[in-house]
Design goal:
33% of the residues lie in helices and 25% in strands. It is an alpha+beta fold. It has two domains: 91 residues, no CATH class; 99 residues, no CATH class. A hairpin with a 2-residue loop joins strand 4 and strand 5.
Length: 213
């Protein structure tokens, strides 16, 4: 996605969920860069919608009519939005990553949302840390395999949640372990019951319609 400029940031939409311009611009350089590049926020935020507070990640979506705010609430279970097989869902739960049907699927363990990108839309740098990647190595990364950089002890892996497009194997495993632990202890943030989780989903739908008017 083309990088979002300051003038395109939907501040009115952000205000509706409790983010004034000053608060949003104070999120920090790395977080702002992620959001303006089209990635989900790294952190979960306390959002105020219809006088209720919920935790969710933020992202922006560019459409024909402009840039819209998207909310990504915590889900107790993975919702099979892409009609994957049960065995595929189990692989996502275990490994956090799946390459199938010319698509890459990655589990965001903070929200339990599945991210999906077409293989043809994935761009991997030909040079990482000053080391050139071969066509074979790039193909291996796109399959979800770990690639060891030549003449280095660094191993890397494709990461849809990283603006660079990849993470070191150590970074990936650490992130997966930390986020898995949160859900293993039944962490559901501000969405503590099925009732208020359903309420939030309805609010998100209403707000999405409002945003696009």
């Amino acid at each position: 996605m083309k990088k979002i400029s300051y003038s395109e940031i939907p501040f009115e939409q952000l205000k509706k969920v409790g983010f004034e311009e000053k608060k949003f611009m104070g999120l920090g350089k790395s977080e702002l860069e992620r959001l303006l590049a089209g990635f989900l926020s790294q952190k979960l935020y306390e959002l105020k919608v219809d006088d209720k507070s919920y935790q969710a990640k933020l992202s922006f979506e560019r459409t024909a009519t402009g840039v819209n705010l998207k909310l990504h609430p915590i889900r107790r279970e993975i919702q099979n939005d892409f009609d994957l097989k049960i065995s595929d869902i189990e692989k996502l739960k275990k490994f956090g990553y799946l390459s199938k049907y010319n698509q890459i699927y990655q589990l965001d363990r903070k929200t339990n949302e599945v991210l999906r990108v077409n293989l043809k839309d994935i761009t991997i740098p030909k040079n990482i840390n000053g080391i050139a990647l071969s066509g074979k190595e790039i193909a291996q990364l796109k399959k979800g395999n770990v690639v060891k950089l030549k003449d280095s002890n660094v191993e890397i892996k494709l990461d849809l949640d990283n603006p660079k497009g990849f993470s070191s194997k150590a970074e990936w495993e650490k992130k997966q372990e930390m986020e898995y632990d949160r859900f293993a202890h039944d962490y559901v943030g501000g969405l503590k019951t099925d009732k208020n989780r359903a309420e939030f989903q309805n609010v998100v739908k209403r707000q999405s319609n409002t945003f696009k008017r």
